[in-house]
Amino acid sequence: MPASLENKPSKQQEQLKSDHVLSDLKKAEKRKEKKERKNRKSKKDSADKEAKSKKRSSDGSDKTAAKKTKLVTGVEQQPQDVAAAPAPAITLVEAKAFYEKHNITVSGDDSYLPYLEFSQTPFGSKLLKSCAKFSKPTPIQSACWPVISASRDVIGIAETGSGKTFAFGLPAIHMLSEKYGKKAQSCKRPLVLIISPTRELAIQTHEQCLEAGRELGITSMCLYGGSRKQDQIQELRKSKPAIIVATPGRLLDVVENDRAVDLSSVEFLVLDEADRMLDQGFEKDIRAIIGMLPQGASRQTVMFSATWPTSVRSLADTFLINPVNVSIGADELAINERVDQIVEVVEGKQKNFRLLELLKKYHKSRKNRVLVFALYKKEAGRIEEMLKRKGYNCIAIHGDKSQAHRLQAIEAFRSGSIPLLIATDVAARGLDVPDVEYVINFTFPLTIDEYTHRCGRTARAGKKGVAHTFFMPEDKHHSGNLINVLRSANMTVPDSLLKFGTTVKKKQHASYGAFFKDVDPNAKPVKIVFD
Question: Which residues fall in a compositionally biased region of kind Basic residues (predicted)?
Fold first, then answer.
């Protein structure tokens, strides 16, 4: 058989070969279809996931994505107290009218418009729960919140009982929440420091900070003298608070002697009632404390005071950077205009009888809160015993009482279980009880500033009140200042007070008396030339 015929494939072999090729083509087409179906399914699944993801994001429920988001500071951002869309900002005309109505002066930078409603603030609903009982911000809050929230240093001069604690407390807590999230709930080193002149004021500020930060889990710790230091240190180490409220002496003791607090991370400093702290001789301690804090632009400083003397101005010039000054009313003395000031000139023998007569009028129900101020510890104790003998449910606080007794007395007065409180000036500041209807100054205080703060214990939280003062001939050196205070508040000046004269005596220094001379630290020296 020829070779050419031997190599030629048969018809059967060609058919088999053709069948194999078709089979391979069909398999390839099936694989291609299967792959395309898989790709289409994959794309569909991916689109579904993306749609679900967008839906979760719009609903605010994608917690996993939020946890993975990092802040610029490197702190993991948690779901925070999100504020509702802020209300429209007010106009310049509205701001000017508001400032004129409340006698507000803003200097240093007047570009910040006040918040007239809580809805205009950047604070979230959780933080604003602490303000639920108020219909709108107080004037000092309205003017200070936008400035403090912009991380500017602020000097606030306002009457007592004007809501200054929340004026600096809410922006401080808002800053902690926004910047640190859940890490602000437990801090190795405090981030906010509030310095107060008295134990009572420190405790009260601490309680208000706790109330404001509760919903956000941000805690506060209070350090003050008169209580066991070791107990405070243990609580400090256990709670690791972001906020510390302290009196100067105890804070220095805990920092320098026990090394229980490191102040090197404090970003927000508040000097509350700065004039009182300087009057009590705390200037050296305050300067030492501020020296332990971060300096310059890394720290925001806020200073509040009821008066604006030269000593406070010097402190502000030293430690505040380009501050915005917010002043409500006069810089010298600011008494709430809702306080009806009544001054009665009496002789010493008449005081007990007049006090009992006033209580029959002011404390007729024996349930409303009345605060009686005495000058000395023994005097307060004597008044307490006299009123108890007359059947009054009362209690006294003064320097001879233990800190525990004083706290119990203030709490009983606040709750109303003991509605009549007798106190020395230890309670003139820091006693924040909104429902005190009457203040009776049984003995005139040593300074006109203390008179201001005594009167500030009534007419708080937008309410009205009465401050009835006994003025004796021995107090005549205060007549000029007192008459000026009464006139500035449009109060009636009795003729019996005018007879003591309107001369204002020069304020004496606590250490140097009448020989003290105010010196302007910014004044340039005068060059003397000898001929």
Answer: 32-43
